[in-house]
Amino acid sequence: MTIPRSGRILGIDWGTSRIGVAICDETQLVARPLDVLTRRTGRRLPLAQFLTIVTRETPVGLVVGLPLDDDGRIGDSAAAAREMGLMFAARTHLPIEWVDESFTSVRSIEAMIEMGRRPTRQNVDPLAAATLLQDWLDARR
C-alpha cells in the first residue's frame, strides 16, 4: 500500500523517551510540528496517545524516521523505530514509508537557535518530525 498523493500525512521521529509527531497540509506541501508523545522508560509505546492523534487529524499515511547508524545501517534504535512504525501502521491500517532521520534533531536545534528560540524537550522532537516529513515531501515531488 502506498501513501496517496493528497491528504494529510503524519511524520514520526522516534526517541526512547519522546516521539515527535508532525503533520502536513492536505496538498502535501508543508509539514509542521504537531505533538510529542511521551514514553516512560521500560513502558509500552504510547499507542493510545497516537491513536487519539490519528482520530483527530485523519491522516492518509505515516512517514517514520529511522535513526540509522554512522554507516547508514539499521542499529538498535532504528530497529526499535521500525517496530514502533509497524505497530502504528498495523493499528491504524495506514500505509507507511521510511526515511533516514539522521541529524533531524540537530538541524531542528540549530534552526530554533537561529530563530532566537530556546530548544526544549517539548519543541525539538516535533520539529525534528516536521523536518523529516518535509524532507520526504520535497523528495517525493
- Kindly give the count of domains: 1
Shape: globular
CATH homologous superfamily identity: YqgF/RNase H-like domain
Strand content: 15-25%
- The secondary structure category is alpha/beta
Parts with pLDDT < 50 across at least 5 consecutive residues: none
Instruction: Give me the oligomer status.
Output: single chain
Instruction: Tell me what the CATH architecture is.
Output: 2-Layer Sandwich
Order of helices and strands: EEEHEHEHH
Distance between the termini: 19 Å
* Rg (CA only): 14 Å
Main pleated sheet = 5 strands, mixed
Mean pLDDT across every amino acid position = 90
Determine the number of helices (DSSP H or I, runs of at least 4 residues). Answer: 4
Tell me the helix content: 40-55%
**What is the level 1 CATH name?**
Alpha Beta
* Main sheet strand line-up: 3-2-1-4-5
